[in-house]
Amino acid sequence: MILRNTILLFVLLGSLCCFSQSEPLKTVDTVQFRSRLGIGISNFINSAFSSDKNAYNLEYRYALNKKYALRAGASYEKDDSEGGFTEIGLKIGADKVFRQNKHWTFYFGADILSSYSNFKNVNKDNYAIGIAPLLGIQYNIVDNFSISIEPMLYFKYNIVVDNATFLENKRTTWSESGFGKTGYIQLNFHF
């Protein structure tokens, strides 16, 4: 009886050890959180962190799977004072994760940028459209919260329509390029 119980105990402990070494089945496309909502830290603390004209107030990222994600962003600002202005910006894009571990995620992608602004005192409409390849580095602090930076190289085409002139050609156009969002830190909430 004691021998039978001892053998049974060893068989049960042995089978538990076998099960403890197996890993749960993971699929390639499993994503813990599909959505990420980000806001620039400079929106909270202007004096300590840099702001950027190429940054959007609110950014959203939707993970299609572990590697690919769609992105969108929006910004809005209005000042009703005498020399006030209105600024609106929208962007869409995609990115691909190329390295990821428990805390770090590295990705690259591109955004299509667009913006409109109007300043009351000069009565000019400013339009811009462009593309911005980017490199993203995200540090996951906890499951639902991370910080990230996304430096980019932007190429924009600008159109200014002067509504206050009597000239026949009211439009002025030019292109610009440069580095954007360098030093711009973003707070992200995952859900």
TrEMBL record:
Any one Pfam family match given in the protein's UniProt record, by short name: DUF481
Q: Which organism is it from?
A: Flavobacterium supellecticarium
Keyword set, alphabetical order:
Signal
Identify the SUPFAM superfamilies for this entry.
Answer: OMPA-like (SSF56925)
Enumerate the InterPro entries for this protein.
DUF481, OMP/PagP_B-barrel
Signal peptide start-end: 1-20
Kindly provide the name given to this protein in its UniProt entry.
DUF481 domain-containing protein
